Amino acid sequence: MLKLLLPILLCAISDGDDGAKLSGNDLLRAHEMLAGSWEFVSITDRGEKLGSGLLGERFAQDGRLTVADHQMVIVSPETGDKRTATFRIDPSKNPRQIDLFTRDDRIFRGIYKFDDEDLVVCLQPGDRIDRPDDFTSPDGSDRILIRLKTITRKAIGDRISTSKSANEPSAAAVQSQGSREAALRRAHELLAGSWDIVSIVDDGSKLGTALVKSKFAESSRVQIGTRALAYVSPESGERRISAIRIDPSKTPSEINLTTHFDEVLKGIYAFNDDELLICLAKREDDERPTKFEAPAGSDDALFRLKMVRSESPERVTETTARKPAPPAEPVAQKEKQIKEKIGGGWSYTDNKGNLTLVFRPDGTFTATRTWRSGLKRLFEGDTTTSYGRWGYGGGRLDAYVTSTMDPHLVGRSYHFRLQSVGDNTMVLANSFGELRTARRLE
Questions:
Q1: d(CA 108, CA 127)
Q2: Which of 160, 343, 401, 438 could bridge across to 348 with cysteines, CB 3.0–4.6 Å?
Q3: 3-class SS at 331?
Q4: What is the pLDDT of residues 145-178, one digit of tens each?
Q5: Domains with residue ranges and CATH for the chain
Q6: Where are the alpha helices (DSSP H) in 59-161?
């Protein structure tokens, strides 16, 4: 705690490198210039530029940053929780200097300037003692370049219905909120129930009912509830559940689906008589589809589903029937051998960054995620480490988080379909059949 308080105290008595004390009035005016609400225009992290749409969807609710009382605050769009970083400034320098302190006590040294209506900040990560000398983040560098746009009172008013009392919403606002909640409830009621997958168009390739039954969902059936979508794997009989979030106020209606790999896939949906169309981007960094199409090269998947009105005897038989189990002894021996091969350290890279996993013989594991995103690095640290239990059986690798640096991961379960495991590589598949190849650590 002392490490976090000390920089704040130093802000009031900060001296320049040349020993000249900064005027208290000058410092106050500089903080007033920064204070308020800002909207992310872009973040360039190590040469990779992230636009406002992606930032608002994945990192900061409404794409907004709030500055007040020596703190920068964003709100997670996924959990609604606040993320805070403390900062200090020295406006007497040219360019103006800023130091940002993360929650894991690291320092990002940087510079800032005002550019017309924008605030531009360039930061160097804490393992470097030097400070950026210009406002760039070239490919291969460690710099993070942030551009923000000021949000005027009028813009805030356009977004939020105001009333005479700051604590009491107007009647119109209450009615509008009630209408939105009613529309959302109706949309969930329309989606809820059992659906048969008629077809899937996967990046231009059409998968028919028979192929869907054998490879994707048993009996080509999915169940949709208020907050989740579930189906049964035809290979293992495992029930797989994905969280869903919808927004029927958009045109077309939007849906987000969270997979077993904790990836949030963006999509759209529409009803067509007794059918439901869902078009999903297959990777979380991809843009949300705008049409109900999945041509080759789009990296989208289009699902056509038909409402199930009643269960037929044939379907019940198909759902409950199982192939005779092979002799228990050979299966147990084989699974023991596979589990022994899984043991040890593994690493793979995806669109979130790098994940390092260590599976121990006693059934415990450690997972360390190194984030590639600039905003994650600033507000959540470069890495997140989790601990838990793991097990293997029936071709499935299961992991359960018992403790972690991120409280939202506690109690979360992860399920991977093991495709192969060798001396140096292990191949895992997600619910869409996309593969992750992990390399054994030396």
A1: 8
A2: 438
A3: helix
A4: 999 998 865 444 544 443 334 444 555 544 455 5
A5: 2-159 (2.40.128), 189-320 (2.40.128), 328-440 (2.40.128.280)
A6: 153-159
Q: Do the beta carbons of residue 128 and residue 109 sit within 8 Å?
A: yes
Contacts of 255 (CB under 8 A, 6+ apart): 244, 245, 246, 247, 267, 268, 269, 278, 280
Q: How many CA atoms lie within 13 A of 382 on its CB side?
A: 12
How is 146-200 classified by DSSP, letter by letter? EEEEE--HHHHHHHS---SSSSS--HHHHHHHHHHHHHHHHHHHHH-EEEEEEEE
Identify residue 421 by its one-letter amino acid code. Answer: V
* CA 178/CA 425 separation, integer angstroms: 53
CB–CB of 30/89 below 8 Å? Answer: yes
430 near 260, Cβ under 8 Å?
yes
How many helices and strands, by DSSP H and E, does the chain display?
9, 26
Q: What are phi and psi of 170, to 5 degrees?
A: -70, 165
* Long-range Cβ pairs for the range 198-201 (8 Å, 24+): 198/275, 198/304, 198/305, 198/306, 199/303, 199/304, 200/301, 200/302, 200/303, 200/304, 201/293, 201/294, 201/301, 201/302
